[in-house]
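Folded chain entry
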Amino acid sequence: MSVLIIAGSIIIMLCALNRYRKCMSLIEEVHYSKNWKLLLALIWFFIVAYAVYGYSLIAGYQISNQRSMITAILFLGSVFVFFITNLNHKIFSQVAKLNKEIRRHVDHLEEEVKLRTEELETLSVTDNLTGLFNQRHFYRKLEEESYRANRQNGQVFLLLFDVDKFKDYNDAYGHLAGDKALQIVGKTITESIRTHIDTGCRYGGDEFTVILPDLDREQALVVARRILNKLNEYDIQTSMGLIPCRGCDSKNPKRFLKLADQAMYAAKKEGGNRIKLYMPTDEESTDETTNNTNYTNAAAKWSCI
């Protein structure tokens, strides 16, 4: 029975030696530590000790100081277990450190991806020349603000304008000068409206829009006049159409825009550099079911401001 136990112990240590070699094949030589070398020495010690002890049992030899030898084997066995535990602790510590580093890098990459995504989203709705929002964002925001105004029984104003005789200006001074003028318009809009509340957009070419939620007629006119007067300081004249939206069709913002466009061209026909305010009259038709104003067939009162 003792011989079988010794034989089993030798087989176990040989398996441990094989595992050790596989571990070493995964680790660069520069990462070898004294603990690993001592572990190898202990493995070989146990293999030799078990072999000698087993041979003595089979041959019937009596080993002197047999008790001391067994005591030494047991002591070194505890040392062996200690080094195995210590090595595992170091390995797990390194794994934990690596996991922490990986997590930090992953968090950093996720933050980078988030920032890049936000940048791409911003670029997708931003006009490169003026820094204002583009037409795509305009329609989305107009629908959103119209829906909110309807739901809260509020009002939103839409200001639409273009630069008077902009084509002639481009022909006379060149497209670079024209671009500079458009940049001035964009900067003026940004400085004249409420940040994170109003929405300034370049609709296309020299046409611009400003969405003004939660303002009454006089407040909306103040914003329009501010933009008009500031642009006049740069010798830039504009024709503006201003229209309120109360109970308008939030799912069809182009109908709302069409009335602002009519107001803008009415201002242009009267010489430009002015604001035309579209105010629905009492005779306009209203859908009682949806409480939406029918702007298409409505009569309107035009005011030149």
Remarks:
- Residues 135-304 form a domain with the Alpha-Beta Plaits fold (CATH 3.30.70.270).
